[in-house]
């Protein structure tokens, strides 16, 4: 199997099942898993078999389609109630990534317009709509990649944090998609890959993706990013986002904020690549975005030479995300083009114009 020839997540209504790459197995093994009920979909999201804001959103949409298929309801109202119960449970799986809520609300909106439709026909409509959303995700990522690649010069060196490639979406990716498109367009790009502790999405997933595409890279520990920025060995920093407030504050994988500070101090542009579904215009500022704290074991279970690096019973904190204030973001790259400061005015106006 080759990543460039497949999608991260698919849905087969005939089985029915959601099928996805199990990202917990990478880079050692490219393994597909089949999820046959809502509980398995929720567990896959919580345990990060699937991760990345766009991927989580489409997984939730497919999860609702699956819930609709396996529902034993014999009336439309009971079937709709089953879907809404499934939606509530999915909403609680990962509270920070707004794409999850965005995708669920789109499906619920479609179902709300189906009153009186036979259950079989309603199931087919939901199946078709979720597949359209998956196709839309791929097209959006390719448009963002084209806009973002224009910001990178030939022979550029970039720092990339976390994983934002095809694995974080249905296909192609956001920030890593920009790097991929630049490479495919003939530009020579070298990537400094932040390990991205504690789950090491950079060294496990991003490095593996870059290997797949034939893009040059070096893995660096997160704390080494400032070293390369200060020495002017970096032309740009590229990150994705899990949620962006209306004013341009960015909540993204933990470690993004200090990386943005170091880039600002070194006068290196800091680009955030995200689709409109990651912007939460209902939240004015980033401080109001909930930050998920994950299990302490993700920090304390790390091993070196087959031995734990922490004392038995060690205490730890494990926030999954941090907040990067808007003044540290040079430019946003979206499927509608580039958004420049002032963000408080330009973010809402960009999406209003696009939707008009």
Q: Distance between termini?
A: 42 Å
What spatial form do the alpha-carbon principal axes imply?
Answer: globular
Low-pLDDT stretches are none
Strand order of the largest sheet: 6-5-4-7-10-15-16
Helix/strand order, N-terminal first: EEEHHHHHEHEHEHEEEHEEHEEEEEH
Q: Which structural class should the secondary elements be placed in?
A: alpha/beta
Largest β-sheet summary: 7 strands, mixed
Q: Into which percent range does the helicity of residues fall? A: 40-55%
The DSSP helix count reads: 11
What's the pLDDT, averaged over the residues?
A: 94
Tell me the strand percentage band: 15-25%
User: How many β-strand runs?
Assistant: 16
Q: What's the gyration radius in Å?
A: 20 Å
What does this structure look like?
This protein is of the alpha/beta class. The chain has helices at residues 38-46, 53-70, 76-91, 98-112, 119-149, 175-184, 201-213, 225-230, 256-265, 297-300, 343-355; strands at 9-12, 17-21, 32-35, 156-160, 189-194, 216-220, 236-239, 243-245, 250-253, 270-273, 279-280, 303-304, 307-308, 321-324, 331-334, 337-339. The strands form four sheets. The chain has a seven-stranded mixed beta sheet with strand order 6-5-4-7-10-15-16. It starts with 8 loop residues before the first strand and ends with a helix. The relative contact order is 0.11. The model has no long low-confidence stretch (mean pLDDT 94).
């Amino acid at each position: 199997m080759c990543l460039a020839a497949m999608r991260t997540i698919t849905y087969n209504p005939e089985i029915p099942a959601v099928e996805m790459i199990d990202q917990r197995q990478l880079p050692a093994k490219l393994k597909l898993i089949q999820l046959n009920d809502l509980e398995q979909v929720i567990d896959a999201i919580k345990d990060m078999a699937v991760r990345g804001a766009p991927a989580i959103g489409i997984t939730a949409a497919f999860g609702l389609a699956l819930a609709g298929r396996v529902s034993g309801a014999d009336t439309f109202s009971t079937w709709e109630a089953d879907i809404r119960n499934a939606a509530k449970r999915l909403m609680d799986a990962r509270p920070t990534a707004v794409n999850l809520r965005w995708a669920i609300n789109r499906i619920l909106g479609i179902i709300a317009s189906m009153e009186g439709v036979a259950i079989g026909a309603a199931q087919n409509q939901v199946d078709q709509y979720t597949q359209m959303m998956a196709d839309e995700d791929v097209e959006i990522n390719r448009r963002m990649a084209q806009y973002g690649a224009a910001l990178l010069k030939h022979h550029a060196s970039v720092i990339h944090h976390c994983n934002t490639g095809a694995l974080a979406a249905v296909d192609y990716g956001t920030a890593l998609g920009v790097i991929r498109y630049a490479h495919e367009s003939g530009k020579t790009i070298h990537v400094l890959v932040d390990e991205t502790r504690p789950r090491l999405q950079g060294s496990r997933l991003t490095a593996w993706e870059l290997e797949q595409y034939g893009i040059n890279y070096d893995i660096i520990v997160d704390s080494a990013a400032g070293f390369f920025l200060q020495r002017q060995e970096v032309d740009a920093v590229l990150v994705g986002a899990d949620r962006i407030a209306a004013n341009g504050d960015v909540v993204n994988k933990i470690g993004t904020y200090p990386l943005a500070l170091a880039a600002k101090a070194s006068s290196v542009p800091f680009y955030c690549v995200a689709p409109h579904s990651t912007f939460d215009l209902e939240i004015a500022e980033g401080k109001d975005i909930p930050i998920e704290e994950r299990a302490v074991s993700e920090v304390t279970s790390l091993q070196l030479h087959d031995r734990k690096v922490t004392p038995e019973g060690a205490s730890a904190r494990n926030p999954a995300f941090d907040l990067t204030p808007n003044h540290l973001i040079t430019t946003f790259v979206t499927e509608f083009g580039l958004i420049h400061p002032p963000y408080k005015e330009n973010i809402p106006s960009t999406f209003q114009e696009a939707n008009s």
